[in-house]
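[Help] Beginner question about ligand-bound structures

Sorry if this is basic. My supervisor gave me a protein sequence and a SMILES string for zinc ion and asked me to "get the holo structure". I don't really know what that means in practice or what format the answer should be in. Inputs are pasted below exactly as I got them.
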Amino acid sequence: MSVSPELPKFRLGDVVRLRKPHPCGDDRWEVVRVGADFRLRCLGCGRYVLVPRRKFERAVKEILGSIPDGYQPEPPPPRPRRR
Ligand SMILES: [Zn+2]
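Answer (accepted):
No worries, everyone starts somewhere. Holo just means with the ligand present. The predicted complex, written as structure tokens, is below.
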């Protein structure tokens, strides 16, 4: 029996931290669609991105929690004022 590393499974409503932060400064994303492509919503600015599953799995640093389980993401820190 071959032992393969357990891959994390993602569900709708999971909040993950990615290795690469969004240009808005937040690195937390909510999973809003799963499948061959994952759709993510940036918790900092609310933008949506579409990421291929494999790329997404590599980019995830940690799973912070799942909104359906009652996880409440903290609001993003206030943005620095632009000059
Ligand atoms: Zn953003």
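A couple of things worth pointing out: Strands lie at 14-18, 28-33, 37-42, 48-52, 60-66. The pocket of zinc ion is lined by residues 22, 24, 26, 42, 44-45, 47 (CB under 6 Å). Feel free to follow up in the thread.
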